[in-house]
Automatic annotation (TrEMBL):
Lineage, uppermost ranks: Eukaryota, Metazoa, Ecdysozoa, Arthropoda, Chelicerata
Residue ranges the record marks as coiled coil: none
Matching PANTHER family: OBSCURIN, SIDESTEP PROTEIN
Name under which the protein is recorded: Ig-like domain-containing protein
Species name: Araneus ventricosus (Orbweaver spider)
UniProt cross-references to Pfam families, sorted A to Z: Ig_3
Length: 231
């Protein structure tokens, strides 16, 4: 009983000292904070435990979990991609479900920064941003068909640029004309870029010059097309 009495006396002495040092307004404010244990939500964003962050390939399903600590509990949770709010879109393979985000059959367009945001009566909390990298087979950097005019026996240099991850790309070139398709061997390559040196010898040398690549993820589906026409 004596110990409890001494503790009360010490608390009253501390309260009185604070009153004279801080004034009543600051003391009331400090006591309110002591009584109110609320806090802005603390968020931590993580990929699903079974997912290897450094080896996500196109076509895979990706799961994000937003772990939240908050008092009082949150009344709103949202998701951001490149600072834009994400909504469920089943046709695009995006499923937003409170503290979870699912990306089905990811593509290179899903690469970027993801973040979860939560709000309670104390304010808004944001997780750190998590960068999602997706490995994908090569695609044309410029998808438009380009047209080149060249005379017979004249050499044309054409550079084909691809996007790919990983960037170690093996290139292939071919010519499609009205009669046949033939491989073109006279080219050099480095990384995701290849330059062909092409010379039409006769009228069969004109047509569609095709460029495509392959990497560890797969072979390019749609080739880059360059139309070669006589001048």
């Amino acid at each position: 009983m004596t110990t409890q009495k001494n503790g009360v006396q010490q608390w009253l002495s501390s309260l009185a000292a604070s009153f004279f040092e801080e004034g009543i307004d600051k003391l009331v404010s400090r006591c309110d904070k002591c009584l109110n244990n609320g806090n802005i939500p603390e968020l931590r964003l993580a990929l699903g435990a079974s997912i290897q962050h450094t080896a996500i390939k196109e076509g895979s399903d990706v799961y994000f979990d937003c772990n939240i600590r908050a008092n009082p509990w949150v009344h709103d949770v949202s998701w951001r991609f490149e600072d834009n709010i994400l909504f469920s879109n089943l046709s695009a393979g995006i499923i937003v479900s409170n503290q979870s985000l699912v990306l089905q059959r990811v593509k290179k367009e899903h690469r970027g920064r993801y973040q979860c945001v939560a709000t309670n009566t104390e304010g808004e909390g944001r997780s750190e941003e998590v960068q999602l990298d997706v490995q994908f087979a090569p695609v044309c950097k410029n998808k438009a068909v380009q047209v080149f005019g060249v005379a017979k026996q004249e050499t044309l240099n054409i550079t084909c640029e691809l996007e790919a991850d990983p960037t170690d790309v093996k290139f292939h070139w071919a010519l499609n004309n009205t009669v046949e398709s033939m491989d073109v061997k006279n080219f050099i390559s480095e990384g995701t870029s290849s330059t062909v040196f092409y010379t039409p010898r006769n009228m069969l040398g004109y047509g569609a010059l095709l460029c495509w690549g392959s990497n560890d993820i797969g072979r390019q589906k749609d080739p880059c097309v360059y139309r070669i026409v006589p001048v």
